[in-house]
Amino acid sequence: MRIVLSSLALAGAGLFLAGCSRLDMQDQPKYKPQRPSEFFADGRSGRPELEGTVARGELQEDTAFYTGKDAQGNDIDTFPVAVDKAFIQRGQQRFDIYCSPCHGRIGNGLGMIVRRGFKQPPSYHIDRLRNAPVGHYYEVISNGYGAMLNYAAQVQPRDRWAIIAYIRALQYSENANINELSADARAKVPAVNAVLTPEQKAALASQPLVPKDTDFYNFPADPATPSGVPGAHGAGAHKTNQPERK
User: Fold this and answer.
1) Is the dihedral of CA 229, 232, 235, 240 positive or negative?
2) DSSP secondary structure, 14-75, as one string
3) Distance separating alpha carbons of residues 139 and 75, to the nearest angstrom
């Protein structure tokens, strides 16, 4: 009896060890990324994607929403999403984070890094940009323009449209007809010669509508790089003995 029990115990242990064999679990028939292969004619273990393959969630069939262009490749001039107050407020938040360092909080091109010597972008309030279609702004955010790098990685498509909606709100704020405002809104507009509150004075000093630097002699039509900055080349920039920026 003792011999039979010993044999059964030994057989059970053998089965247990066979089930935990490291050879079956550790040495799996697989290729690690970028490893070569002798099985395929091109010597690569990774297989090329089939033509027309699209990752899940990346089909992007809505051309207007994902490119800002119509079927003919022209910039669209209507928003492909619903625009409401919450959407514009979202755009303001994203604008203040990603755009205001260069473009300024009110879109006049006088962001903080511009005041420290970086190239000034044009004001959103010039005729050319007031009349630009919304698709133009989407193209610039997505792919960059001039000295501006693209923000495709930082700003998702829907947030790009939110930013553009807020830019339109900024443009309207600087060119609105007071007679188009409601009575309550008109009551909040300060008179031409009204005495500003300390808060209004501080806000105006922080974000001036027109720069005080003499280089900006034709603002906002002609952007400029402030004088005294190495490598200044803006309209009206004074010559300097400081070395050129590399």
Assistant:
1) positive
2) HHHHHHT-HHHHHS-S---TT-B-SSSTTSBSSPPPPTT---TT-----HHHHHSB-TTSPB
3) 8
pLDDT interval class at 64 (50, 70, 90) = very high
* pLDDT value at 100 more than 90: yes
Whether a cis peptide bond, with omega within 30° of 0, leads into 36 is: no
pLDDT of residue 59: 85
Predicted TM-score of the model (pTM): 0.64
- Beta carbons of 141 and 134 less than 8 angstroms apart: no
For position 136, what pLDDT does the model report? 97
pLDDT at 239: 43
**DSSP 8-state secondary structure symbol assigned to residue 148:** B
Report domain extents, the chain: 63-198
Domain made up of 63-198: CATH architecture: Orthogonal Bundle (1.10)
| Structure tokens given for 160 | 């790009």
Reported as half-sphere exposure (CB side, CA atoms, 13 A), residue 26 has a value of: 4
